Amino acid sequence: YMRMMSPSTGFGLGPSSPLLFLHLPQFFAIFAFSTCGSYSGVFRMSVECKNRTESDLSIEVEFEYPFRSEYFDAPTCKESNKERIFLFGDHSSSAEFFVTIGVFAFLYTTAALCIYVFFFEKYKEKNKGPLIDLVVTGVFAFMWLVSSAAWAKGLSDVKKATDPDAVITMIGACKEEENHCREVHDPVMSGLNTSVAFGFINLVLWAGNLWFVFKETSFFGGPLTPGPLTLGPHLIDPP
Q: Which helix (H) or strand (E) holds 53?
């Protein structure tokens, strides 16, 4: 059996190895920021007043990215008056931070792929490209950790703020025993749960990608270059 060896590693690894691995963070970055940034949800409640004509049996509360303070109008069960209810908190900072990291990660990876494909020799020149790549990849791995953790906490707060049972307690008419309030429809949060999962997947992928980028630097004993096919007795396995 004959093997193709590269001088630096003993394996047939060239620039295509880290290039292929870089595809994964690119696509998962898209999934992360799109599932969060495109989200919109709704939940419904009903307020049945003692005087049925003052009731509202379908109060629809909509909320969406970036999850700033939302509000809705609820009946007071006093003639036709309404009261404005604000949902707890402004959760836009963690959501926007998470989406921003996802967008910049996608843009950087796209640029890196173009450099790998079209300017690989320039990338290897004087080892500057691999060193910059290593630093930026490390920064993005750390930012994915911070943004994913922050958004996981933010999502927990969003769920509490949009829990119909909790929101009902904020409606003045629902505090009176003669009126009957209940939830009609819970918000669907599966898309936001998925965005958090994709965030931590990106963390793992970018942290793992550090190894591939590190192998391109001089710290690993010189940048990897595709070696020629070498035939010799030392490359032939004994029978």
A: none
What one-letter code names the amino acid at 9? T
Instruction: Read off the pLDDT of residues 18-29 as tens digits, 9 standing for 90 and up.
Output: 555 666 677 789
What residue ranges do the domains of the chain occupy?
A: 17-219
Mean pLDDT is lowest, of 40-49, 104-113, 141-150, for 104-113
In whole angstroms, give the CA distance from residue 137 to residue 158.
30
- Name the nearest CA neighbour of 120 among 4, 220, 197, 19: 19
Does the pLDDT of residue 117 top 50, yes or no? yes
User: Which helix (H) or strand (E) segment is 226 a member of?
Assistant: none
Rounded to whole angstroms, how far apart are CA atoms 105 and 120? 20
- Closest residue by Cα to residue 31 from 159, 148, 134: 148
Terminal CA-CA length for the chain: 9
Alpha carbon distance 168, 181 (integer Å): 7
Q: What angle do CA 132, 212, 97 make, to 5 degrees?
A: 60
CA distances, 25 to each of 58, 102, 132, 196, 201 (Å): 43, 10, 18, 15, 9
Is residue 122 classed as helix, strand or coil in its secondary structure? Answer: helix
CA pair distance 56, 53, nearest whole angstrom: 8
Whether the Cβ atoms of residue 6 and residue 13 lie closer than 8 Å to each other = yes
Give the chain's mean pLDDT: 81
Three-state DSSP class for residue 2: strand
Contact yes or no for 218/127 (Cβ under 8 A): yes
Please classify residue 205 by burial: count the beta carbons closer than 10 Å to its beta carbon, then call 0-12 exposed, 13-18 middle and 19+ buried.
Answer: buried
